[in-house]
Design goal:
- The chain is α+β, with helices and mostly antiparallel strands and 265 residues long.
- It has two domains: 93 residues, no CATH class; 157 residues, no CATH class.
- The chain is 45% helix and 20% strand.
- The strands form two sheets. Strands 1, 4, 5, 6, 7, 8 and 9 form a seven-stranded mixed beta sheet that branches. Strands 2-3 form a two-stranded antiparallel sheet.
- The longest helix has 32 residues.
- The radius of gyration is 26 Å and the shape is elongated.
């Protein structure tokens, strides 16, 4: 058993493994930067990422093939060869898991469930209006568009308003144990109609409700993983707020990266 390989195939396998590791680390840094950026990635950035990932696969497979042939054809017994083969296999497995073992896109329902799951504790719950719309912020459209276009999210905010041009009915079952109830039958909204008691009676009869929540349909770009959604809430007649939230959808999770507070009281 030697440390360095003695044949050319083995030496090339070591060189390719070094290149594989370097490209893998470069891709990891790029992924972290991409996950944390609040802007839509440029075409050049996407091409660079794709090129890097392609180079990783090519160098990894090449290192694996040359190293295996070195062992098989020349009975190479170098410590570095076996180490590089192990490292390359592990790296390719990690890439395969990320490429095929994680969700690449999400439906509106998936995204809304992830957002609602971050609501109050199990002892309390939010009441969600099933009509997804922007009815309360229609007067703020120009301001919202301008703000997010300045921050490099023009395509996302444009799609956000197009998608919410008309109200949409939510199709998610209530889940009090996860912190939310969808008010499909209008039970909770009825407190605020026809002088039915308002917040005073509502609080007396529903002490476990944390807030009444309005939500829009999410704008989701599967190419970039960016998500934009409106959430408005009211805890009583005086306490409430409205905001536009921007997330990055990665591996089945939503990472908050930006927001616009529209009102708070």
């Amino acid at each position: 058993m030697t440390i360095l390989p003695k044949n050319n195939l083995g030496k090339w396998s070591i060189r390719l493994t070094i290149a594989f590791v370097a490209l893998f680390l470069l891709s990891l840094v790029a992924f972290i930067i991409d996950a944390s950026t609040p802007r839509e990635p440029s075409r050049i950035w996407l091409i660079a990422l794709t090129t890097d990932l392609t180079a990783i696969v090519i160098t990894g497979l090449s290192a694996l093939i040359t190293g295996s042939l070195s062992v098989k054809n020349y009975q190479e017994k170098s410590v570095l060869i076996y180490s590089s083969l192990t490292l390359t296999v592990l790296g390719l497995v990690v890439l395969a898991v990320f490429a095929f073992g994680s969700p690449k896109s999400a439906s509106d329902e998936d995204i809304i469930k992830l957002i609602l799951d971050s609501g109050p504790s199990q002892s309390r719950y939010d009441v969600i209006d099933p009509q997804m719309s922007l009815k309360y912020i229609s007067d703020s459209e120009s301001y919202i568009r301008s703000r997010f276009q300045e921050e490099g999210l023009g395509s996302l905010v444009n799609n956000f308003f197009v998608k919410n041009a008309e109200p949409k009915l939510m199709d998610i079952p209530s889940s009090p144990e996860r912190g939310y109830v969808i008010d499909y039958d209008g039970k909770y909204r009825s407190y605020f109609e026809n002088d039915a008691g308002g917040w005073v009676k509502f609080r007396q009869e529903n002490p476990k409700v944390a807030a009444m929540v309005d939500i829009s349909a999410p704008s989701y770009d599967p190419r970039t993983g960016l998500v934009m959604i409106y959430i408005g809430w009211a805890g009583d007649g005086f306490l409430g707020g409205e905001e536009i939230l921007v997330y990055k959808y990665i591996f089945g999770r939503l990472i908050p990266i930006n927001y616009l507070l529209l009102s708070m009281s």
